[in-house]
Design a protein that fits this description.
- Helix 2 crosses helix 10 (221-240), helix 23 packs antiparallel against helix 28 and helix 28 packs antiparallel against helix 29 (781-808).
- By secondary structure, the protein is an alpha/beta fold.
- The N and C termini lie far apart (116 Å).
- It is built from 33 helices and 34 strands.
Length: 971
C-alpha cells in the first residue's frame, strides 16, 4: 500500500512539474503572409525542433487566409509578430507604430508572371491581374505600380486563389507569384510566360521581413531577442536539413505542394537568403537607406527619413555604453599600456610615415583606447610580415586591423569587424570586365600581398591556384602594369587609392568578388580579458562616426583622381539611346500585334474566297449574295471593263458607290506596271495569289494582294478579281524589319563598345600625359605634335568603325551587285568583338566567291542573325567554340553553309525556329524574330532558300556536332 502511495505521489509530482513548466512558457504568435510552405521553414523548424521552447516561448504560427490585414492585426496586438514583403515606400508611415526586427530574404521573390506578350509594366494596363489585395498596399508590386502611374482602375482585379492553374489555363493575363513557389508549377506546365521583376526597374524589396510593434520593443526587448535568436537558429537548421523540414511541412502543416515542389522551393530560398554573404536575419541598413534616397530622388517618397527610425537593433544598447565586469575593471587598473602593430604600408587603411601612424585606423584607435581606458602604444615594424612575427612573439598585443584566417587563430583572436569593403581585382586597362573573378584564380597569375589573410583564404578555396605572393600593394600593382601578373587582389579602398595616386589610365578595377573583406581588431589569444574589452569597444563605435571616418578618406581620394566628364557624357548619350530603343521597342511591339491580327484576317479571307469561288461555280443566281459575303474587294471585268463589283470594292478604292466603279477600265484601278502583270496572268489563266499595287479615286497608291480567276458568266468570258488592301500590313512588315534592326542594334552597340574600348583608353592616356608634361614644364612642341597626331589617327580609326556600323543600319532601297565573300567578311567585322569575347573561332573551309545582285545590307543582317544565334547556342559550352563557313558555287546556284559545334538544336523544336516570335528564351532576353527575318530576307527578298539541320562531322581528327544553316542563292 505504501509503495502504491509513493508511486502515485511521484506521478502527481511529474504531472504538476510538467504543468508548471508549460505555464511558464510565454505565449506569442506570428502571422505569416502566405500559406504553410518552405518560405517559412525557419519558424516551423524553430517550433518543431524546440528552439522556441528553449527560449521559454510557446509560439502559434498562423497561416495566411484571404481577408486578414497583417499590419492592422499587428498594430491591434492580435498577433505578436508579423511577416510580410514590403517596399520602402511603406516604411515611413509605419515608423511610429512598427519596428522591423529581422530580414531573412535579402531580395524579394515577389514578381508578376505574365503572358509572353506582356513585357513591361505599361503592358499590364487593361489586363486581368490576379493579386492579393494586401500586396497592392504593402509590397514591391505596389511600388512598381506607383513608379509607372498604374492605379487599380487601370486593370481588371481578380482576388488571388493561390493556384497557378488560373494562369496556366489562360483565365488571367498576369498574376503575382514568388520565384520560389508558383514558378515551379508554371514551368512544369510548359506554358510560355514572362516575368516582370520590380528589381529590374530599381525597386528594392526584401522578403520574409519580421515586424513587431514599437511598444513591444520598448517594453519587452528581451522577448523580441529570444524570438529572433530562436527563429535564426530555425533557419540555420532548415537550410542544413532541407529534406527533413520538407517532410515536416508536408506531414504536419500542408499537403498543398508536393515534396518535390517544396524541395525546389527550398533550394531557391537558399539563393534568396544568401547565407554565405549575410548573417541569417541581419538587416542591411545601408541598402535600405540607399533605396530610400533613390525613391526620394524619383519623387515617390516626399519626406526624407532615416532607416534607424523603423529598424529595431537588439544590440543597440550595447553599442551606446560599456558595462565592464569586476574582473575587467581590475584588469584595466593593472594594465599600463597595450602594444599595437600595424601594416606599415596599407593606405588608405593605415601607414607608418616617419614613425607616425596615419590612415583610417589612426582615427579609430584613439576612440577604442578611450572606451577601454588603457593607452595604446604603436610598435613600429618594417613590413606586414614583421608585424606578424612580432604578434607571434608577443612583442605586440594587438593588430590595429586584420582579418581572421585559420593560421592566425593559433596566436590571435579577432573581434567583430569594424571595417568592411568588397574584395576586388585590378588589371591592365585593356582587359574586359570580369563577372566572376573567382574563376580566374586557377587560370591566371594573381598577386596578393604576402601573409595577408586574403592569400590564405583564396588558396584554401582554390587549391589549384596560381596565386603569386608580393611584398606590398605597390609591388603587386607594378607587376600587373608590367604584365608579370594578370591581376592584383585586395580590398576596394586600397586598390582605388593606389590607382588614383599611381596608375591612372594604366590599370583599372575589372571585377568584384561575391564576398567582402571584413576587418576587426586582432588580439593575442592568451589574453581573453583584453579580447573581451576590445569586442565591447568595437561594438560600441557609433555608426555615424564610422561613416565620417570612411568619408574623410574615400571621398578625398576620389576628388583628386580621374576626370569623369567624358564618362558622364558617354553615359548620357547611352541613356538617351536606351530610352529611344525602349520607346521604339514598345511601339514596334504594339504594331506587331496589329500585324499579326491582319495576317490572321488575311488567312481567314483567303479561306472565305475559296468557299466563294465554289459557290459561284454552283449557282450563278446567288452571285450577288456571294460577292458581298466576303471581306475582300471583288471586281468582275469583261474585256478590261468593270461590269460588277461588291460593296467592299468601292469603299476600298474611295468611291461613293458601286455605280461609280461600273463602266471604268481596269487601268483606272492599277498603275501601268501592275496592268502588264495582270495581262500576262490573264493570258496564262494564272489564279495564284500575288502582290501588286492599286490606285484609289484620289490617286493614292495602295499595296494589295490580288487573285484573278477566268470564268464564264452568261456565256461571257470574264475575269473575277479578289483584292485585299495590305497597305497597313506592309507598313507593319517594314516595322518588323525595323524591330529586327533594333534588336541587332543592342548587339551592335556591344560590338562598338568592344572595338572602342582600347582606342578610347589610348586617347585618354595620351591626353593625360600631355597635361602632366605641361604641368611639369617638360613638354615640347614636337612631342605635343607627335602625340596629337596619334590622337588624330586613333580618332580616324574610331570614325571608320562607326561608319561601318552606320552603314549596317541603312535601309536597302535598290539592288546592288556585291561579292558574297566580301559581305561575309563585313558581317564578321561587325561581330568581331562578340566573337572574341566569347572565345569563338571562325574557320573557312571551301572559299568560292560570286557576284550577285540583291540587297547587301539585308544579307549582312541575315548573316549577323545567324552568327548571334550560334553565339547564344555556345552559352553552356566552355571548351572549343567553332563556327565553320563553307562557300561553293554550283552552276547558277551559290551555296553557303554555316555550322557550329554547339551540339545542335533540339529535334522537338528545330522545325519551329523560323516561325515568328518563336524563342527558347524569355521575352526579356529575346524577341524570337531574328531567324524569322533571316528566312524572309533570303527567301522572299533574295529569292533564295534557307534550311537548317543537325549534323556530325570531324575537324582536326576530333568529332563534333552542331547545327548547320544552308543558304542557296541564285547567282
Amino acid at each position: 500500500m505504501n509503495i502504491l502511495r509513493y508511486f502515485l505521489l511521484i506521478i502527481t509530482f511529474i504531472v504538476v512539474t510538467h504543468a508548471s513548466q508549460t505555464r511558464e512558457l510565454k505565449e506569442v504568435s506570428v502571422q505569416l503572409n502566405w500559406k504553410y510552405q518552405f518560405e517559412f521553414a525557419g519558424f516551423i523548424a524553430a517550433k518543431e525542433k524546440g528552439f522556441y521552447k528553449e527560449q521559454g516561448l510557446a509560439v502559434d504560427i498562423k497561416e495566411f487566409v484571404p481577408g486578414v490585414n497583417i499590419v492592422e492585426d499587428l498594430k491591434s496586438e492580435k498577433t505578436t509578430f508579423s511577416v510580410y514583403d514590403f517596399s520602402v515606400l511603406n516604411l515611413e508611415e509605419q515608423k511610429d507604430s512598427l519596428k522591423l526586427v529581422a530580414n531573412y530574404f535579402k531580395r524579394s521573390a515577389l514578381v508578376f508572371v505574365t503572358k509572353q506578350n506582356i513585357v513591361t509594366p505599361f503592358d499590364l494596363k487593361n489586363k486581368t491581374i490576379m493579386i492579393e489585395e494586401e500586396q497592392l498596399d504593402l509590397s514591391t508590386l505596389n511600388a512598381l505600380f506607383k513608379k509607372f502611374n498604374i492605379s487599380k482602375k487601370d486593370f481588371k482585379f481578380k482576388q488571388h486563389t493561390f493556384n497557378p492553374k488560373n494562369f496556366i489555363d489562360g483565365e488571367v493575363d498576369a498574376m503575382s507569384a514568388y520565384l520560389s513557389n508558383e514558378i515551379y508549377e508554371i514551368k512544369k506546365s510548359k506554358v510560355p510566360f514572362n516575368i516582370i521583376d520590380p528589381q529590374t526597374y530599381g525597386i528594392y524589396g526584401s522578403g520574409v521581413n519580421l515586424f513587431t510593434t514599437k511598444k513591444l520593443t520598448e517594453e519587452n526587448p528581451q522577448l523580441v531577442k529570444k524570438f529572433i535568436e530562436a527563429t535564426n537558429k530555425g533557419w540555420i537548421y532548415s537550410l542544413a536539413n532541407k529534406k527533413e523540414i520538407v517532410d515536416i511541412i508536408y506531414d504536419k502543416y500542408s499537403k498543398t505542394k508536393t515534396k518535390d515542389a517544396l524541395l525546389f522551393e527550398a533550394n531557391q530560398i537558399e539563393k534568396l537568403i544568401m547565407p554565405k554573404i549575410y548573417d541569417i536575419g541581419k538587416i542591411d541598413k545601408q541598402l535600405f537607406q540607399k533605396n530610400i534616397n533613390e525613391f526620394i530622388n524619383d519623387g515617390l517618397i516626399k519626406n526624407k527619413f532615416n532607416v534607424e527610425d523603423i529598424i529595431f537593433d537588439i544590440n543597440e544598447k550595447k553599442k551606446t555604453q560599456l558595462n565592464f565586469t569586476k574582473e575587467q575593471k581590475d584588469y584595466i587598473l593593472k594594465k599600463d599600456k597595450i602594444t599595437m602593430c600595424i601594416d606599415p604600408d596599407w593606405m588608405p587603411y593605415e601607414k607608418l610615415v616617419d614613425g607616425k601612424h596615419i590612415g583610417m585606423t589612426s582615427e579609430y584607435i584613439p576612440i577604442l583606447s578611450k572606451k577601454i581606458g588603457i593607452p595604446i602604444e604603436l610598435v613600429p615594424t618594417k613590413n606586414w610580415s614583421e608585424s606578424i612575427e612580432f604578434a607571434k612573439t608577443r612583442k605586440c598585443d594587438i593588430f590595429s586591423l586584420a582579418s581572421v584566417s585559420p593560421s592566425r587563430l593559433s596566436y590571435m583572436n579577432f573581434t567583430s569587424p569594424y571595417v568592411s569593403f568588397p574584395l576586388v581585382i585590378a588589371t591592365r586597362n585593356d582587359e574586359v570586365f570580369i563577372s566572376d573573378p573567382d574563376s580566374l584564380i586557377n587560370e591566371k597569375k594573381i598577386g596578393v600581398v604576402k601573409n595577408y589573410s586574403i592569400e590564405e583564404i583564396l588558396k584554401r578555396i582554390h587549391p589549384d591556384n596560381k596565386i603569386v605572393s608580393v611584398k606590398n600593394v605597390n609591388d603587386g600593382m607594378e607587376k600587373v602594369a608590367r604584365g608579370e601578373l594578370f591581376g592584383f587582389v585586395d580590398a576596394l579602398p586600397t586598390i582605388a587609392y593606389t590607382l588614383q595616386h599611381n596608375y591612372i589610365g594604366e590599370l583599372k578595377i575589372s571585377g568584384k568578388f561575391n564576398y567582402n573583406f571584413e576587418l576587426g581588431i586582432g588580439v593575442r589569444n592568451d589574453d581573453i580579458i583584453l579580447f573581451e574589452l576590445f569586442q565591447k569597444a568595437v561594438q560600441a563605435i557609433d555608426e555615424k562616426e564610422k561613416q565620417r571616418i570612411i568619408n574623410s578618406y574615400i571621398s578625398v581620394n576620389v576628388e583628386s583622381g580621374f576626370d569623369y566628364t567624358l564618362f558622364y557624357q558617354v553615359g548620357i548619350i547611352l541613356f538617351i539611346i536606351s530610352l529611344f530603343l525602349f520607346y521604339r521597342h514598345f511601339q514596334v511591339s504594339k504594331h506587331n500585334r496589329v500585324l499579326k491580327k491582319q495576317q490572321n484576317q488575311l488567312n481567314k479571307s483567303n479561306e472565305e474566297l475559296t468557299k466563294t469561288k465554289k459557290k459561284l461555280e454552283a449557282s450563278i443566281k446567288d452571285f450577288e449574295i456571294l460577292i458581298n459575303s466576303v471581306t475582300e474587294a471583288i471586281f468582275i471585268f469583261e474585256n478590261d471593263v468593270c461590269i460588277d463589283a461588291n460593296d467592299i470594292a468601292h469603299k476600298m478604292y474611295g468611291y461613293n458607290s458601286k455605280d461609280e466603279i461600273i463602266g471604268k477600265n481596269i487601268k483606272d484601278f492599277v498603275p501601268k506596271e501592275t496592268y502588264k502583270k495582270i495581262k500576262e496572268r490573264k493570258r496564262e489563266d494564272d489564279s495564284n495569289i500575288y502582290e501588286s499595287k492599286g490606285i484609289k479615286k484620289d490617286g493614292t497608291i495602295i499595296d494589295v494582294l490580288s487573285k484573278g480567276t477566268n470564268a464564264m458568266i452568261n456565256s461571257k468570258k470574264v475575269r473575277i478579281s479578289a483584292i485585299v488592301d495590305i497597305s497597313e500590313t506592309k507598313q507593319k512588315e517594314q516595322l518588323l524589319f525595323q524591330q529586327s534592326k533594333m534588336a541587332s542594334m543592342g548587339q551592335m552597340l556591344e560590338n562598338i563598345a568592344h572595338q572602342w574600348r582600347q582606342p578610347l583608353s589610348l586617347i585618354s592616356s595620351i591626353s593625360t600625359a600631355i597635361e602632366l608634361k605641361k604641368d611639369l614644364d617638360i613638354s615640347t612642341i614636337e612631342d605635343e605634335r607627335k602625340e596629337l597626331k596619334k590622337i588624330n589617327s586613333t580618332a580616324q580609326h574610331l570614325s571608320e568603325t562607326i561608319e561601318d556600323f552606320r552603314n549596317f543600319f541603312k535601309s536597302d532601297k535598290k539592288k546592288v551587285e556585291f561579292s558574297i565573300l566580301k559581305s561575309i567578311d563585313k558581317s564578321l567585322e561587325l561581330v568581331e568583338g562578340i566573337l572574341k569575347n566569347n572565345s569563338i573561332t571562325v574557320v573557312f573551309e571551301n572559299v568560292d566567291d560570286a557576284m550577285i545582285k540583291s540587297y547587301e545590307n539585308e544579307f549582312t543582317q541575315a548573316l549577323v542573325n545567324i552568327f548571334y544565334n550560334a553565339k547564344d547556342a555556345f552559352e553552356k559550352q566552355e571548351k572549343e567554340r567553332y563556327i565553320f563557313i563553307d562557300l561553293q558555287k554550283e552552276k547558277d546556284i551559290f551555296i553557303l553553309k554555316i555550322k557550329d559545334n554547339a551540339k545542335g538544336i533540339e529535334e522537338s523544336i528545330i522545325k519551329n525556329i523560323f516561325e515568328p516570335y518563336f524563342t527558347t528564351k524569355h521575352q526579356s532576353q529575346g524577341t524570337g524574330i531574328g531567324l524569322y527575318m533571316t528566312q524572309m530576307i533570303v527567301e522572299k527578298h533574295m529569292r533564295g532558300k534557307i534550311e537548317v539541320e543537325n549534323i556530325s562531322y570531324t575537324y582536326k581528327n576530333k568529332k563534333y556536332s552542331g547545327a548547320q544553316f544552308t543558304f542557296k542563292l541564285p547567282v
